[in-house]
Inverse folding.
């Protein structure tokens, strides 16, 4: 199961007005998660156009120039493919975050300062604690709405640093507190550890929102890829365990089923930064046995989806998980859940955290933020 990533480096980059950091990814990381770094979320309208220099890949004939530039830069690092590595090695690979940061540097992109401050929290879970980064708006008295955010990485790689741009972007665009959860990863922590950590963190937020200037009656969940799977599971578990259900959920190219022969898996088997072999690698490392792939916590399309919160689903065209998101949207609608969905053409998995480079990412973050603000009554 997975989202693509491979290096969780806390990257800081000085730009004319600030220090910036981005998140999205195809890797995991080497540096520990910090809680005070700024993050890039968008560039100015006067910046130079960024485009690739080489031909489009065979698997991406529709790829947009900026997205192509990110993928081209990622390939320049020459890292070994993740399926050829151990999890520890894969977590040191470069990520799309690294590629975006390098493109920003090379093209002298200007990044606005963040509109939120960050602090760290340790959240108790079964067998220990998990770290969370809390993004709090710099302006406004509160109580603020709260978003509990889950990063991608196939349950195996990446971290909250790699996905910092997504979390900060959501806070800036919604004026909400974002709690980004560093759930424990496999194979050190096998299924269903990440799922249980995700729910424990959500439950903790419902009980402690007020102490963070948050509104316990306005809590939503958001996740990317593996994190999208986790976010949906949190809503299901909240419903089943009789605690406060999220007021809304945003699922971004979520892992939603286990059949790797869907139209998207076939068409984009060799896509980057996520391909079919990576998904197979993630699955082997997270699950205790392949029979667990049919567990409804992994195959969400087989779960009871009734009485879940209204949902936004965002998918990327050039992505093995494209069909997953489409299938989940259909299943949610069939279960009576209100669903808005948008498929972004010309972009790949992990594009959501790249608004500083990829225009479609800027649109997608705004699309998610608008839905969340409406759910929060803002």
């Amino acid at each position: 199961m997975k989202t693509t990533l491979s290096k969780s480096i806390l990257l800081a980059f000085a730009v004319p007005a600030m220090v910036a950091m981005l998140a999205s990814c195809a890797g995991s990381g080497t540096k520990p998660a910090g809680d005070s770094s700024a993050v890039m979320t968008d560039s100015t309208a006067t910046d130079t156009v960024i485009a690739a220099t080489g031909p489009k890949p065979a698997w991406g004939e529709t790829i947009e120039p900026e997205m192509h530039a990110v993928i081209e830069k990622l390939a320049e690092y020459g890292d070994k493919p993740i399926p050829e590595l151990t999890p520890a090695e894969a977590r040191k690979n470069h990520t799309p975050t690294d590629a975006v940061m390098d493109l920003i540097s090379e093209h002298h992109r200007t990044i606005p300062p963040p509109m939120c401050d960050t602090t760290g929290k340790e959240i108790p879970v079964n067998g220990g604690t998990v770290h969370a980064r809390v993004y709090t708006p710099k302006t406004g008295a509160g109580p603020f709405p709260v978003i509990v955010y889950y990063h991608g990485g196939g349950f195996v790689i990446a971290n909250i640093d790699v996905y910092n741009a997504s979390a900060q972007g959501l806070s800036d665009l919604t004026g909400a507190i974002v709690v980004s959860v560093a759930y424990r990863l496999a194979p050190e922590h096998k299924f269903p550890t990440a799922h249980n950590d995700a729910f424990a963190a959500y439950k903790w937020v419902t009980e402690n929102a007020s102490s963070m200037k948050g509104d316990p009656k306005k809590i939503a969940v958001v996740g990317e890829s593996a994190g999208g799977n986790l976010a949906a599971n949190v809503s299901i578990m909240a419903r089943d365990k009789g605690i406060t259900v999220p007021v809304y959920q945003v699922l971004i190219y979520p892992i939603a089923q286990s059949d790797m022969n869907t139209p998207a898996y076939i068409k984009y088997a060799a896509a980057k930064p996520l391909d079919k072999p990576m998904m197979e690698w993630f699955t082997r490392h997270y699950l205790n046995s392949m029979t667990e792939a049919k567990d409804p916590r992994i195959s969400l399309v087989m779960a009871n989806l009734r009485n879940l919160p209204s949902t936004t689903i965002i998918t990327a065209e050039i992505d093995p998980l494209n069909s997953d998101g489409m299938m989940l949207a259909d299943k949610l609608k069939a279960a009576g859940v209100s669903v808005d969905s948008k498929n972004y053409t010309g972009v790949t998995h992990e594009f959501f955290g790249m608004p500083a480079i990829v225009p479609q990412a800027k649109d997608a973050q705004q699309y998610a933020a608008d839905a969340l603000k409406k759910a929060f009554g803002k």
Remarks:
- The CA atoms of residues 43 and 111 lie 5 Å apart.
- Residues 359-376 form the longest helix (18 residues).
- The chain is about 30% helix and 20% strand.
